[in-house]
Structures are given as structure tokens and as C-alpha cells.
Write a structure and sequence with these properties.
Elements (H helix, E strand, L loop, with lengths): L14 H21 L5 H9 L4 H22 L13 E2 H18 L3 H9 L3 H28 L3 E3 L3 H5 L3 H31 L2
Antiparallel strand pairs: 1-2
Helix pairs in contact: 1-5, 3-8, 4-6, 5-6
């Protein structure tokens, strides 16, 4: 898998150049996360407690922009979707992993990316979070032989949402956009509701 595909397909880059560009993109991404306030656990906690929906809005915006861009290029014949790398689906371990990730996010108020950003700015809680993250990685490494059967269970191969639902790509795109717009509208209403409560003496 190319770490910078399809950018790395534009020119023949050597491995050192690919690593350097990936590092620059990573630093840039981290800088943007910090500037957006995502290196602060209180900002991320607002998602769960209903006083700050920045995470939901940013994530939905990223999903919609990437989705419309990708499928727009596919419709124009610029991109062959079959050549775009998609992780294989292992249904059961990914469901359990998603649940563990969600619980960790809710309890620690960080995901791995935002935790790294917070560590870079010296936040102790993020360093503790990352300590747990690496501890989990090490534990998984040593337990892999025991967990391998489950880890590889539910192998469905390369599955996209339109394939899984048996509906056209365009319907899925419209549906995701509608869900995003609905989420934006709902969080706007909730923002006004909670702002009014905070303003009430």
C-alpha cells in the first residue's frame, strides 16, 4: 500500500521523499488539529456532554468533502475506484475494536491523533492516555497468537457501503450528505438551547 496514494502516483518519488512528505503532512495535520482546539480534552469532551459539537461538524465535513471529491472524480472518469486502496473488512474484530475505541474516546476524551497533538503541547493527561495506548499495543503483540483466529474472523474482503447495502453509489452519497446536513442543523439547535440555559441566571 502506498502511504501517499494517489499523490505518489503523480511522480516517481524515492522512499526518502515519500517519508519526508508524509512527515510534513503529519506535522501540518497536527498543527491544524491544535489550532482547531482538538488538542484540548475539554473541547473533545463537549461532544459527549452537549456543549461543543466541533468534532462532529469537522468529521462530517471531512467525510462529505472527501466523499464528494472522490466520487465526483470517479464520475468524471479521472479515478478508477477499483484501484483505490480500501482496508479489508473483518467484521467481528472490527466491531469489537470499534466499541473499545469508542469507550476509550469517551473515557479519555482523546483519540490517538488528538492525543499525540496534546502530548506535543505538554498535556499530562494526554501522555497518560498515550501510555495506555502503547501498553495496549504491547499487550496485543504478545497476545496475538491467542487472538489470531478471532482477529481474522468475519473476513468479507474489500467491501464498500453501496456493495453491502446493494444500492447505487449515488444513493449512498446523497444519504450521507443528508445525514450530515441533519446533524449540522440539530447541533445548531442544541447549541442555541444550551447557550440559552447558560445565559439564564
Amino acid at each position: 500500500m502506498e502511504p501517499l496514494a494517489p499523490i505518489s502516483k503523480i511522480a516517481e518519488w524515492g522512499p526518502n521523499t515519500v517519508i519526508a512528505v508524509a512527515a510534513l503532512l503529519g506535522v501540518g495535520f497536527g498543527f491544524v488539529l491544535e489550532r482547531a482546539g482538538f488538542g484540548n480534552a475539554r473541547t473533545l469532551a463537549g461532544q459527549w456532554y452537549g456543549y461543543n459539537f466541533a468534532v462532529l461538524r469537522v468529521m462530517f465535513t471531512a467525510i462529505v468533502v472527501a466523499m464528494l471529491g472522490l466520487f465526483g472524480l470517479v464520475a468524471l472518469g479521472v479515478v478508477d475506484l477499483s484501484l483505490v486502496y480500501v482496508n479489508d473488512t473483518f467484521l467481528w474484530p472490527q466491531l469489537i475494536g470499534g466499541l473499545i475505541f469508542g469507550v476509550g474516546f469517551a473515557v479519555g476524551q482523546y483519540c490517538p491523533g488528538t492525543a499525540v497533538v496534546a502530548c506535543a503541547t505538554g498535556k499530562i493527561d494526554a501522555m497518560v492516555f498515550m501510555g495506555g495506548f502503547f501498553g495496549g499495543l504491547i499487550a496485543f503483540f504478545f497476545a496475538y497468537d491467542t487472538l489470531e483466529t478471532f482477529y481474522l474472523s468475519g473476513d468479507l474482503g474489500r467491501v464498500l457501503l453501496p456493495d453491502a447495502l446493494g444500492i447505487p453509489v449515488g444513493v449512498v452519497v446523497v444519504g450521507v450528505v443528508a445525514i450530515a446536513l441533519g446533524a449540522f442543523a440539530l447541533t445548531h439547535v442544541l447549541d442555541r438551547k444550551f447557550a440559552a440555559k447558560r445565559a439564564t441566571p
